[in-house]
Amino acid sequence: MSSSSLVVHTQRRQLELYEDNRLIYRFPIAVGKNETPTPHGFFYIAAKAMYPGGVFGSRWMGLSLPQYGIHGTNNPASIGQAVSKGCIRMYNQDAEFVYQHVEIGTPVKIQS
Predict the structure, then answer these.
(1) 3 — phi, psi (to 5°)?
(2) Alpha helices in the chain (DSSP H)
(3) CA 5 to CA 56: how far, in whole Å?
(4) How far apart are CA 83 and CA 68, in angstroms?
(5) What angle do CA 33, 39, 42 make, to 5 degrees?
(6) What is the pLDDT of residues 13-52, one digit of tens each?
(7) What is the mean pLDDT of the chain?
(8) Superfamily of domain 4-111
(9) 71 pLDDT more than 90
């Protein structure tokens, strides 16, 4: 079984998916606005949910930092912007791809 990890670059607004320390995909994302920035640090996937609804789009991957997560969106035009309350937004199809490749406990590094 491969070992997945995620690296989020808030300034570039990109999320990278690694398997066995090898970059396999890079996705565009939306990040937190200035008043509610996306926190930097080392976290892990603590929860997963399919079809959480509303602003969370088709997938939710909650981080070990409560109330923050990686999720889809009901507003695809927001991807590439700094508009969230600190969460990492993805296009729904991208969130679904990542959801399939990560498990509870997958490491997530968020950096500028």
Answers:
(1) -110, 115
(2) 92-101
(3) 21
(4) 14
(5) 150
(6) 999 999 999 999 999 999 999 999 999 999 999 999 999 9
(7) 96
(8) L,D-transpeptidase catalytic domain-like (2.40.440.10)
(9) yes
Token pair of 84, please?
A: 């969230």
Residues annotated catalytic, as ranges:
71, 87
- What residues have CB less than 8 Å from 88, skipping those under 6 apart? 8, 15, 29, 30, 31, 38, 69, 70, 71, 110
Q: Retrieve residue 52's tokens.
A: 């959480």
- Residues 6 or more apart whose CB falls under 8 angstroms from that of 47 comprise 60, 61, 62, 69, 104
Q: What number is the average pLDDT over the span 95-107?
A: 98
Nearest alpha carbon to residue 50 among 29, 19, 21, 71: 71
Residue 40 and residue 81: Cα distance in Å, rounded? Answer: 17
- Given the DSSP bridges, would you call strands 82-84 and 4-9 parallel, antiparallel or unpaired? unpaired
| Other Cβ atoms closer than 10 A to 83 | 16
